[in-house]
């Protein structure tokens, strides 16, 4: 095996979650309506999840959720102001009110939920942390990385998981702190670190950008649970409900077979009362949320159901080529399950 190199100068920077306590802030829905735009925090750039298209518009799996919430509130998925945030500054941005919603591949943890004072509205992607390294390194497993230098984004759960994994396996490593995924990609390709670790989906996304992707391998170990989901400030139940039930609509719509193509027809009324309640032809679910009766239909018109979003940005026919796996509906062996629309 080719020896793993050591960096000459250790630059251990202890990353912190980096957010102060959140101040409860009720009335976000009214504030968003008054502003006429949803301020939505997303990644600084991650293929599949948050990236710009040829016209310079932000798109991707996480960006689609921002558009879904905008469609729920305004009936128009384009009324979004995207705010690019790093792992370190995403929480201060949400706590301070700079953004209304964070949709940036963020792991739901105890401390973020309880101590930092945020409310996770659900899980929209079940992930786990992995490693990528050059095949020429001669390493087949993360447990063979004793003495390796590891690129790691600060202010993330991956930073903490990394320390736990190496401690449990009694092996040493040298962290190379990086602030953004793009910085990590550049540093890894410039040989500033032996391996890069982040969520497995992020590794798949980053690998698609490599000129010679076949020269690199993702190691088999998944060392953590990473339930990723959108979050809002704690203390505003109405706004949390708007975000939570927008996510639930996306999942339920897939289960019920409501798609971007047939939602207009289904919204006129169907034989399924749950679909009728969701799309507003029966009941008053929208009114209960402070939204229009057709809010859910507008969500699906704007971005499609969960399965359509997944297939468009992450699925087997995309550059990432991800299978649904745990992110399949519970009816198909996955973990996705949304409460009923009643």
Class from helix and strand fractions: alpha/beta
Q: Please report the number of helical segments.
A: 13
Query: Which bin fits the share of residues in helices?
Result: 25-40%
DSSP strand (E) fraction? 15-25%
What is the element string, with H for helices and E for strands? HEEEHEHEHEEEEHEHEHEEEHHHHHH
Q: Give the uncertain stretches in residue-range form.
A: 1-21
Alpha-carbon distance between the two ends:
60 Å
Main sheet summary: 5 strands, mixed
Radius of gyration: 21 Å
Mean pLDDT: 91
Oligomer: single chain
Q: How many runs of DSSP E, i.e. beta strands?
A: 14
Question: Biggest sheet: strands side by side, in what order?
Answer: 10-9-11-8-12
- The backbone outline, from C-alpha atoms, is globular
Characterization of this structure:
Helix 2 packs antiparallel against helix 12. The chain has about 350 residues and is α/β, with parallel strands linked by helices. The N terminus is likely disordered. The strands form five sheets. The protein has a five-stranded mixed β-sheet with strand order 10-9-11-8-12. A hairpin with a 5-residue loop joins strand 2 and strand 3. Helix content is about 35%, strand content about 15%. It contains 13 helices and 14 strands.
């Amino acid at each position: 095996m080719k020896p793993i190199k050591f960096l000459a100068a250790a630059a251990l920077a202890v990353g912190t979650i980096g957010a102060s306590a959140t101040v409860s802030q009720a009335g976000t829905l009214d504030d968003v309506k008054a502003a006429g735009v949803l301020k939505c925090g997303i990644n600084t750039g991650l293929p599949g999840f948050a990236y710009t298209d040829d016209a310079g518009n932000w798109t991707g799996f996480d960006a689609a959720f921002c558009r879904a919430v905008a469609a729920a509130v305004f009936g128009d998925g384009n009324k979004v102001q995207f705010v690019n945030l790093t792992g370190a500054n995403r929480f201060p941005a949400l706590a301070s009110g700079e953004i209304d919603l964070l949709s940036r591949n963020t792991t739901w943890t105890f401390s973020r939920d309880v101590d930092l004072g945020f409310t996770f509205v659900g899980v929209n992607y079940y992930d786990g942390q992995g490693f990528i390294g050059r095949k020429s390194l001669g390493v087949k497993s993360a447990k063979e990385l004793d003495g390796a230098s590891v690129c790691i984004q600060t202010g993330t759960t991956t930073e903490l998981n990394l320390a736990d994994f190496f401690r449990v396996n009694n092996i040493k490593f040298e962290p190379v702190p990086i602030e953004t995924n793009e910085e990590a990609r550049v540093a890894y390709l410039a040989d500033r670190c032996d391996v890069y670790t982040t969520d497995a989906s992020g590794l798949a996304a980053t690998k698609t950008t490599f000129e010679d992707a076949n020269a690199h391998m993702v190691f088999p170990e998944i060392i953590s649970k990473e339930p990723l989901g959108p979050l809002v400030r704690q203390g505003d139940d109405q706004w949390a409900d708007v975000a939570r039930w927008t996510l639930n609509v996306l999942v339920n719509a897939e289960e019920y077979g409501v798609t971007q193509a047939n939602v207009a027809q289904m919204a006129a009324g169907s034989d399924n009362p749950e679909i009728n309640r969701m799309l507003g032809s029966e009941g008053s679910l929208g009114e209960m949320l402070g939204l229009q009766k057709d809010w859910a239909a507008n969500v699906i018109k704007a971005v499609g159901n969960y399965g359509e979003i997944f297939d468009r940005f992450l699925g087997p026919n995309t550059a990432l080529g991800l299978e649904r796996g745990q992110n399949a509906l519970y009816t198909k062996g996955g973990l996705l399950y949304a409460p009923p629309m009643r």
